[in-house]
Specification:
Strand order of the largest sheet: 1-2-3-4
Distance between the termini: 48 Å
CATH superfamily of the largest domain: MFS general substrate transporter like domains
Number of strands: 6
CATH architecture of the largest domain: Up-down Bundle
Shape: globular
Largest sheet: 4 strands, mixed
Strand content: under 5%
CATH topology of the largest domain: Growth Hormone, Chain: A
Radius of gyration: 23 Å
Length: 476
């Protein structure tokens, strides 16, 4: 049985007089069992203003909460791995780096199939499933870190399962895309992304507190997993009761195939590895870097608990991301991305110079600037994608709606693919640092490599998107 959500327009017995007020002729919204919505069309102004906006914002709120928990679980091992030696685990530096980086490798890979699962299962249904999957790594983490005899292979497997949290970003963004009209997609997706990114900072702030408070000289590491279980259950129940599925949401495999043949997808993916990859990679490894370089600042005692200042990095990067999009709207995404890479390269030089000085506060200040630049670059690079595809499709740059339907489909597919490819930076950054430490006993070599990479990406951005005779007249 189908339940009508809004009343049909009254019958018209005569031709209406001309009026400035338009009446929607679209079919009325209808709700099927399982919270499936029929006839959803956010571009229909009457439908959007009467009911669509309320429904979309309700779904956005629960999507943000579920994605936030995804990032929390994704980043749990960034802080837990650093504390394992103090809990009696005999692990080498290389093994700790693998525990830190493997969730990013798995999460980046899962983003590709996750982006197609919302149309297959429904946004509400897949949010319930994907949130439920977070229970697996959270509960298993609580079990395995309670026994210092747990083999490294088992720890690595459980850390890999935390990648479920990284995959959530792609499905969450895909789902919210279907709910909002084109004119409000940027705002909605920006909130969704920022809410998720904050999960990395919250995990790094909360976990050290809960594992140390009241524990005395020991660490209650299993709490690092158990504390999130009730919140995950709340997300599942909230999604079941408050979110909706959209029946006309379709997976666009043809659009993805077309996007993969577009050279700009690969160029933009490289830029996103440099921006988002740096953000998530450095966020994961920052607690380890502080513990290695400044062990006396690895944790700071506050009352009966301990905190790590590493959470500030992910926090600053998350809060800076929306400003990258806002600046891009005014000055163009390519120019802001260039400035972001210039700042990232310059600040990384500062990090390299502060390492021999042994000054923690200079080190922390430089890294927070690096996170801010990476966050701005996240927003500006992501903002470039639909504009580049609009120009390639014959649109007028930033002021184009998005080109024709084919261009819109390629741009939407490219956003999902680029977010997946960029997340591999979360694996590459820790592993480059690991190789540098294993071969030289320090991290200077890795930071020199990062500087060279940022310079190369700056030049690439300038060459392709700023100097290009085809693209320079558009606000890309």
């Amino acid at each position: 049985m189908t339940e009508t959500v809004n009343a049909a327009p009254p019958p018209v017995t005569a031709a209406p007089a001309p009026s400035t007020t338009s009446t929607s002729t679209a079919p009325a919204l209808a709700l099927r069992r399982g919270r499936w919505i029929e006839n959803w069309n956010p571009e229909d102004h009457a439908q959007w203003e009467s009911q669509g906006r309320v429904i979309a914002r309700r779904n956005l709120r629960w999507s943000i909460f579920a994605e936030f928990l995804g990032f929390v679980v994704w980043q749990l091992w960034s802080i837990v791995a650093v504390t394992l030696p103090a809990a009696g685990f005999a692990l080498s530096t290389g093994e700790i780096f693998w525990l830190i980086s493997i969730p990013s490798l798995v999460g980046a890979t899962l983003r590709i199939p996750y982006s197609f699962l919302v149309p297959r299962f429904g946004g509400r249904n897949w949010t319930i499933i994907s949130a439920g999957l977070l229970l697996i790594p959270a509960i298993l983490l609580a079990i395995v870190v309670g026994n210092p005899e747990t083999p490294f292979g088992v720890l690595l497997l459980v850390a890999a399962l935390a990648g479920f949290g990284g995959g959530n970003f792609a499905s969450s963004m895909s789902n919210i895309t279907f709910f909002f009209p084109q004119r409000e997609k940027g705002w909605a997706l920006g909130l969704n992304a920022a809410g998720g990114n904050l999960g990395a900072s919250v995990a790094q702030f909360v976990v050290p507190i809960v594992v140390t408070i009241g524990a005395g000289a020991a660490l209650n590491l299993p709490l690092a997993g158990w504390i999130w279980v009730p919140l995950i259950l709340v997300a599942m129940i909230g999604a079941a009761r408050r979110m909706d599925n959209i029946s006309n949401a379709k997976a666009d495999f043809a659009g993805s195939a077309a996007a993969l043949r577009e050279p700009h997808l690969w160029v933009l993916s490289l830029l996103y590895i440099g921006t988002f990859g740096s953000f998530i990679g450095f966020a994961s490894v920052f607690p380890k870097l502080i513990a290695d370089q400044f062990p006396e600042f690895a944790t700071v005692a506050v009352g009966g608990a301990s905190i790590t200042l590493a959470f500030l990095g992910a926090l600053v990067g998350s809060l800076a991301r929306p400003y990258g999009g806002r600046l891009s709207d005014r000055f163009g995404g390519a120019r802001i991305t260039m400035l972001a890479f210039a700042a990232m390269g310059t600040v990384t030089v500062g990090v390299l110079l502060t390492l021999p000085l042994g000054n923690f506060w200079l080190f922390l200040g430089c890294f927070l600037l690096l996170f801010a630049a990476a966050g701005i670059g996240n927003g500006s690079t992501y903002r470039m994608v639909p504009v580049v595809f609009a120009v390639r499709g014959g649109g007028a740059g930033a002021d184009a709606g998005a080109g024709d339907v084919s261009t819109q489909r390629k741009a939407a597919a490219a956003l999902g693919l680029i977010s997946a490819i960029g997340a591999y930076g979360g694996f590459l950054i820790p592993q480059v640092l690991n190789v540098s430490y294993q071969t030289t006993g320090g991290y200077a070599g890795a930071f020199m490599g990062f500087i060279a990479g940022y310079v190369a990406l700056l030049v690439l951005t300038y060459t392709v998107y700023v100097r290009s005779s085809r693209l320079r007249d558009h606000k890309i």
